[in-house]
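[READ THE FOLD]
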Amino acid sequence: MNDPQRKPSSPRQRTDGPDKRPAPMVVLRQARTQLAEFIGANAETVTSFEQTEDGWSLEIEVLELSRVPDTMSLMASYQVDLDREGHLTGYRRVRRYERGRSDAHRRGGH
């Protein structure tokens, strides 16, 4: 049945399931924004994203120090935890590396 007072939900505002969790894209944006506020550097890429019992867990790559050439820039990966509503509950740097270097083992199995 249609409820005329009920507004359709957008992908940015919708919640999933009975626990009213934000949609995954909302969580991704919140995690990037909140981490940037804490560490003072912009998040470049989300490399891992997982829903947990307590909320969400992400790994986010950040440019920590820009160098020339760009392949020598210093990058870092941060483990970021958010509660069910998408609020940051903790973070830690788990890896630091030059942008142009790859490593043999990465979190996530590859």
Summary: Confidence is low (pLDDT under 50) at residues 1-16.
